[in-house]
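Hey Z.,

So I finally got round to the adenosine-5'-triphosphate thing we talked about over coffee. Here's the setup:
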Amino acid sequence: MTEDAARSEAPALEMRGITKRYPGVVANDHIDLDLRRGEIHALLGENGAGKTTLMNVLYGLARPDEGTILMDGKQIQIAGPSDAIARGISMVHQHFMLVPVLSVAENVILGAETMSNAVFVDRHEASRRIGALAERFGFDLNPDAKVGSLSVGQQQRVEILKALYRDARVLVLDEPTAVLTPNETEEIFGLLRRLAGDGRSIVFISHKLYEVLEVADRITIIRRGRVIGERRPSETTEEELAELMVGREVELTVDRGESHVAGPVLVVEGLRVADDRHHEVVPGATFEIRAGEILGVAGVAGNGQDELVQALIGLRRSTGGKVTLAGRDVTGFSPRRMNEAGVGYVPGDRQRFGLILAFPVYDNLILTSYYRPPFAHGLIRNDSAILESAAVQIERFDIRTPSARASSSTLSGGNQQKVVVAREFDRELKLLILDQPTRGLDVGSIEFIHRQIIAKRDAGTAVLLVSAELDEVMEMSDRIAVMYRGRIVAELDGRTADKSEVGLLMATGGHEQATTQEEVRA
Ligand code: ATP
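And the result:
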């Protein structure tokens, strides 16, 4: 065989014996991974298993301590992201890196054109090329639209378009479906298949096992920095994948048991909330949650759930209405006063509202209680009490960190979420507000957190669960409220509600079924 022929049969990309150590942890331990042309290769592993680290090595963001990377059979050194991009490797991160005030076309050419031609950018030509690319892959995107006005799903397409514009042959998508609706997910899968059909290699990272089984050609499973196995979707099941990832059997469905509901805890009457642009996005929400029950809010992202939750917890001022907690008027309370009134809160955006990333783990664990005993007496901070309590929580919530002193920014995304959950769950609560509590978590951690939520409910806490995961809402909720354009359009019994019915209500607001809140109650 000639050298060229050998090369064309070689995998598009190979990572051999990749090892990456961080203080106190081997994030990647001699990992081998090969990517073929035209394949969708899923990377599975629990939180902190080392998936992102491996991809950072591939993208030149982290320098491996050992190991080699081969492209088309030839060894390469990747100096940094721009070198990776120049070699045809692109990455779509969990947190998009787009400039909202610029157009789609401007975002796509940002970085790419300045590299080849720093002085002069032919915008018309760029816009035309972007339009043609978008059309070829079936994207519904206007190159001149401002990115800030696009939905999350469309913004993600802009990120993918950026990669295609730079002619990526290897495309890494880190949890691309975490923020998408079921429809958008189907669309993105269609797109990934077209890209693979075009001969590109796709790395797909996800915690959703059914998605991995649906879209991947091959699955590599990593546990604690090592490759544990490789499977094809046709020869495995969700149960087996979960067990491979976590190293033990995992219950994929929730046993929520009986709820023992008592009197009302949270009573919301005609609450009105505006968004940042002063549009009233919640035009008058009325509902209540009783002690010992979970009220799940189902709805397509962007139907006022964020604003409603922010108003309830005091992060956003309401423009009308009343909120009562255990008989006390708490309308307009600040987050700290809500916390002191016995409200726990897990925010949807943990990096913005849940954590101070630069702080060590132990400080984040007491972010809402640092000024109270036993952590402080007057102005005196009690470090040994803080560290002692942190050690207990790290153990109890299985937070994977080399130490309580590690900076929270070095934790994997899922473990950052566990820090927030540990802090908020670890005391007696009247009300627990959960916004996307398991986003980005692995199956084992989801199982654990779901059990903790049920335990809180059974201890008499009223729970508000807002989640973009319809399955999570269906499985966990005693009652389900469907939100559509800022209104609660239906309230259903969690035990008898039908998933497709809820899905339809989410999509249409019940206009096709004429189901209203009043009718369901009657
Ligand atoms: P998740 O599913 O939660 O995103 P992951 O599989 O992507 O997890 P990584 O982010 O790769 O996991 O983390 C692997 C390990 O390496 C973790 O223990 C993490 O704390 C550690 N780690 C990652 N980056 C750094 C860093 N810059 N400094 C120190 N430790 C790090």
